[in-house]
Structure formats: C-alpha cells, structure tokens
Amino acid sequence: MRSNSDFTQLKEFADGDNDFIKDIFNTFLKDAESNWAIIENSFAENKLQDLKGIAHKLKSSFRFLGNQKLGEMAYDIEKMALDIENKSTIENIIKEMKVEFDYFILDIKDELQVL
C-alpha cells in the first residue's frame, strides 16, 4: 500500500462479497476526479460553503473505504472551511491531501486487480 489505506473493515462489511467491493471501488473511482476538482475549484474560487459540503461528503467515503487519514483531513477542512482566516491552513491540508488521495486511488486500483 502506498497510502494509509486499510481495506479490512470494508472487506469485513462485504462479508466475502467481492462483487460488492468492486462496485464500491468502481463507483468511488468514477467520481474521484470530479470530486477532487470540486475541492480545488471551491478553494480557488473561495466558495467555502461548497468546499465544506464536498469535504463532508468525502469524509465518510474515505473512512468507509479504509483511509482514515483522508477522512481526518476532510473533517479538518469541513471544520475550518467557513472561516476565511483558515485559508492558508486549508491550502496546506489540500496539498497534503492530494498526495494521499492519488496514492489512495492507486491502492484501490491495485486492490481491484486482486479481487
């Protein structure tokens, strides 16, 4: 694993149903690029309510899929998003999050190969 991913909980939830896991992963991957664009665009355009909304949406997805670090970063963004004073902190979180996000995508693709 390149990211802080642990798919154990998802696999336990799926109770051996690899098709379920594949569907969950493929749905996430299908939306991943557009969701990341919303994060970047919302931040760049100071649409902090939109940023808060996408962070909230992704927080639970990251956690359910097994990446607690991304879930925590999304939670931090969600908490800070409506205070413009936090903009530089949010920017730093987004930069760190992008690296983890890209590795997470690769880990999901790798996991799909072995399912």
Task: Please give a structural write-up.
The protein has 115 residues and is mainly alpha-helical. It has a single domain (8-114), classed as Four Helix Bundle (Hemerythrin (Met), subunit A), CATH 1.20.120. It has helices spanning 8-14, 18-44, 48-65, 68-80, 87-114. Helix 4 packs antiparallel against helix 5. It is elongated and about 45 Å long. It starts with 7 loop residues before the first helix and ends with a helix. The mean pLDDT is 95.
Quick synopsis:
The chain is mainly alpha-helical. It has helices spanning 8-14, 18-44, 48-65, 68-80, 87-114. The chain contains 5 helices and no strands.
Task: Give the secondary structure arrangement, pairings included.
Blueprint: H1 8-14, H2 18-44, H3 48-65, H4 68-80, H5 87-114
Helix pairs in contact: 2-3, 2-5, 3-4, 4-5
